[in-house]
Amino acid sequence: MKDLLFSLDIGTRNVVGVLARIENDKYIVVDYEAIEHPERAMFDGQIHDIGKVANVANEVKEKLERRNNIELKYVSIAAAGRALKTKKVIVEMESDSLKEINKTDIDGLNLLGVETAQKELVEAVNLETSYYCVGYTVINYLLDGKNIVNLKGHKGSKVGAEILATFLPHVVVDSLYTVVHRIGLEVINMTL
Hints:
With 192 residues, this protein is of the alpha+beta class.
């Protein structure tokens, strides 16, 4: 059963664990367990009592381990979408028009976009909370002001990117990771 995938949805009302495997590009649910929080330990997707939530998550994990005679080490988790903040930005950088654009250049442009989005997000809503970037996507790349699908290998004097970045407050992400680590699991994926 080493090909099993384990996911936890640590929700406001309950914790749901799912074991699945991939067959012919489809997810097949092998087993699942859902347990309600006996007391309010979460509000609107935010963990307020790490110990109580960890107890429920551990009970879900242990029941799945016993029934399937396995030891779970890795998990994919879901984070509450209510706290998500998104920001779309366009960033541009000067480029050496004699040099081909490479992966490092593109990665730097993407990072500039994420950093710019985070800075603009914080300024726009006067947030004092720090945020993690939990995902971003490039909507368009620009080469000398014109849309282009892939910058790699091209030459131009100015490169740019239109980026949509998504952020969650540190407290949301940190509390999820703390619960998962307390029950002896390592996060390998987070979805929103």
